[in-house]
Write a structure and sequence with these properties.
Number of domains: 2
Largest sheet: 7 strands, mixed
Order of helices and strands: HEHEHHEHEEHEEEEEEEHEEEEEEEH
Number of helices: 8
Strand content: 25-35%
Distance between the termini: 54 Å
Number of strands: 19
CATH superfamily of the largest domain: Probable inorganic polyphosphate/atp-NAD kinase, domain 1
CATH topology of the largest domain: Rossmann fold
Mean pLDDT: 88
Low-confidence stretches: none
Radius of gyration: 20 Å
Shape: globular
């Protein structure tokens, strides 16, 4: 897609930002009750919030909440919205909340109870301080670039999904590699022969793409990472495309079933002659960060870089 076309789409939509002081009246708390400590935290957090805002709603089954919102029309999904979403859990719970509000992004603060927590950035012990800052209008927005994936079948049928982390084309249970042809802005790039291809946002650069050897991009950056999974040729390397690139994929060879997955969720089987188009979504998702959490500390803590710090004599 040309940059001018993307700019038109972005101007036609409203980019959500951080709540202003006193603007948060309704809060939705999405809690992953399977995580240790979440149930105890929500028992303290809910009454604490109810003393400060007009309405607090608790969602205990995030998957069911996502499925229920998916059944609503686009117009219905954009009404009766919370001013703030607070997620208790890990990055999986954040991805669920983002899917639930894909068409109407809401400022979202993640309280981390997971093992990693690149998206759910606020430590569990600091939820009061972080929420006080957000309610006072001091929330820091990290606008997260998203991707649109569209599958077009030969009969004209189309399916669409929105990704915060990545769009993945991968083989199913059958052994054997895939051959996927990739074109960018109408120019043929290569026919990748690999177990799959990952198209990741900067947010997704620390997810599956990183495991497959892709680079880490700072969350505020813009770009699309193309990372082959276990490629046959050693010369295949991850590349970073311009964020406004229009990417077209065609499946050329496969020994078995092939799936398109979005943010770790199976989306649709891919057949020969199907076309997959990937492009930037015009609305970034407004994740909120805790003001006192250094973004580089997040990398050090999550990736274990603290263990590699040099300590000179006298330290």
């Amino acid at each position: 897609m040309a940059s001018s076309e993307f700019a038109k789409r972005a101007r036609a939509t409203r980019q959500p930002g951080a709540p202003k002081a006193g603007a948060v009246k309704r809060v939705l708390v999405a809690a992953d009750m399977a995580k240790d400590g979440v149930r105890e935290c929500q028992r303290e957090l809910l009454p604490w919030l109810r003393e400060r805002v007009e309405k607090v709603e608790l969602v205990e089954d995030i998957s069911a909440f996502v499925a229920a919102r998916a059944q609503r029309s686009k117009a219905a999904s954009e009404t009766d919205l919370p001013d703030l979403v607070v997620v208790l859990g890990g990055d999986g719970a954040i991805l669920g909340a983002v899917r639930a509000f894909a068409d109407a992004p809401r400022p979202t603060l993640g309280i981390n109870f997971g093992r990693v927590g690149f998206l759910a950035s606020t430590p569990e012990s600091d939820w009061r301080e972080a929420l006080l800052g957000v309610l006072a209008g001091e929330g820091i927005v990290e606008p997260r670039m998203r991707l649109e994936a569209q599958i077009v079948s030969p009969d004209g049928a189309q399916m669409r999904a929105v990704a915060l982390n990545e769009v993945l084309l991968a083989r199913g249970a059958a052994p054997g590699m895939l051959t996927i042809s990739v074109a960018v802005d109408g120019d043929w790039v290569a026919d990748y022969r690999a177990d799959g291809l990952i198209f990741a946002t900067p947010s997704g650069s620390t997810a599956h793409s990183l495991s497959a050897g892709g680079p880490i991009l700072f969350p505020s950056m813009l770009g699309v990472i193309v990372t082959p999974m276990s490629p046959q040729g050693l010369s295949y390397r991850p590349i970073v495309l311009h964020p406004d690139s229009s990417i077209e994929l065609r499946l050329k060879e496969a020994s078995g079933s092939v799936l398109v997955a979005v943010d770790g969720q199976a989306f649709h089987p891919l057949h020969h002659d199907d076309i997959v188009r990937v492009r930037r979504h015009p609305i970034a998702y407004p994740l909120l960060a805790w003001a006192k959490l250094d973004p580089y500390r997040r990398l050090r803590d999550r990736l274990g870089w603290n263990q590699t710090r040099y300590r000179g004599d006298g330290e």
